[in-house]
Amino acid sequence: MAALDRVKVLVLGDSGVGKSSLVHLLCQNQVLGNPSWTVGCSVDVRIHDYKEGTPEEKTYYIELWDVGGSVGSATSVKSTRAVFYNLLNGIILVHDLTNKKSSQNLYRWSLEALNRDVAPTGVLVTNGDYDREQFADNQIPLLVIGTKLDQIPETKRNEVLTRTAFLAEDFNAEEINLDCTNPRYLAAGSSNAVKLSRFFDKVIEKRYFLKDGNQVCHFS
């Protein structure tokens, strides 16, 4: 069997938001029983059928790079992470729906990865005040995933999900909210599964197909 083409997707967010549990669920379709802190970076692979059910259907490897979530602003910490940001094809931004600060920090995480040579030194957002233009020219597909949906009381759920919807809009990204301990949130045919598939299709298109007449950068 011929080797499958692949794309590289970073999974970014603060420590403790559930990135490792999410990646395990996406790649193994199983709940991670005993998650531990990620040191450096961990890589897992998901098989994805691009444009499934159409004549253009083709199978790809999606490499999910789970980057350790230390938010320390020390230059050494950021320079260590920067090596993982090379030749990325997509980014999944993960935040804890019960932790507003982890949502705000997604701005910093995205800018650190997209502008690794001039990475900011702190959180760039205060009460929603940030420069939308920083993301206007971004060509890297983004997906925002909120975790721990099950831990939000029903009385506060609308308020929280309204806030995070604006967050996804800021990134010009689709949004998925789920509980990483319950696979049904990504069940085949569900709206979340459709959004995830659409995101991976977009990553593959940006990676392997022409953009404005120029071949996009290849990851090898």
Descriptive notes:
- It holds the Pfam family Roc.
- Belongs to the small GTPase superfamily. Rab family.
- InterPro entries: P-loop_NTPase, Sigma_54_int_dom_ATP-bd_1.
- Helix content is 31%, strand content 20%.
- It is globular, with a radius of gyration of 17 Å.
- With 220 residues, it is α/β, with parallel strands linked by helices.
Please summarize what this structure is:
By secondary structure, this protein is of the alpha/beta class. The protein contains five helices and six strands. The chain has one domain: P-loop containing nucleotide triphosphate hydrolases (Rossmann fold).
Question: How would you summarize the topology of this molecule?
Answer:
Blueprint: E1 6-12, H1 19-28, E2 41-50, E3 58-67, H2 75-82, E4 90-96, H3 100-114, E5 142-147, H4 154-170, E6 174-177, H5 191-208
Parallel strand pairs: 1-3, 1-4, 4-5, 5-6
Antiparallel strand pairs: 2-3
Keywords: GTP-binding, Nucleotide-binding
Organism: Chionis minor
GO molecular function: GTP binding
Which class of secondary structure composition applies to the elements? alpha/beta
* Assigned CATH superfamily: P-loop containing nucleotide triphosphate hydrolases
Order of strands in the sheet with most strands:
2-3-1-4-5-6
Biggest beta-sheet profile: 6 strands, mixed
Q: Radius of gyration, Cα only, in angstroms? A: 17 Å
Estimate the mean pLDDT confidence. Answer: 85
How much of the residues is beta strand, in percent?
15-25%
Shape descriptor reads: globular
- Counted up, domains total 1
DSSP summary: helix tally: 5
Number of E-state strands: 6
Helix coverage percent: 25-40%
**CATH class label:** Alpha Beta
Give the distance, in angstroms, between the N- and C-terminal Cα atoms: 19 Å
Pfam family, one: Roc
InterPro entries: P-loop_NTPase, Sigma_54_int_dom_ATP-bd_1
Keywords: GTP-binding, Nucleotide-binding
Protein name: Rab-like protein 3
